[in-house]
Amino acid sequence: MTQDRFLGVAALALAAVMIAFGYNLQAPFAYEPVGTRAFPLMAAGAIAICGLLLVLKPGQANTTEGSGITRPILILSVCLLAYALLFQSIGFVISTAVMMIPIAMVFGALWWQGAITGVVLAVSSYLLFDTVLDVVLPVGPFGGII
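Given the sequence above, the corresponding structure tokens read:
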């Protein structure tokens, strides 16, 4: 089994667990119009589609020496962990904007390109979730400015 197929099967298993838990998720009161189930089920659906694609059409097998955890994967993992830990305390906009700088640099952008992309992505996503979808996101220390 190639690494892509293994990852695809793992993604399908994760999606199944997310669907099982997300489908039964209910809040004691409805504070968002889309409900508490919408995001976990949409995320599970996207993960399942990606997993199915990896199972059905994997890429070429990587036969190069040292094909384990690489520096970009480590950087992305640390960014994701930091984002999860800082999301509530410093808020959605700041944590998203700051997280985008090293991620953009991993993909070849300069730091200032990542900063611009991060600010635009963070503010536009916040406005989309807050005004259009009516989903409450952590505002952080600069709450009320946006």
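The CA atoms of residues 17 and 44 lie 8 Å apart. Try to locate this feature in the token string yourself.
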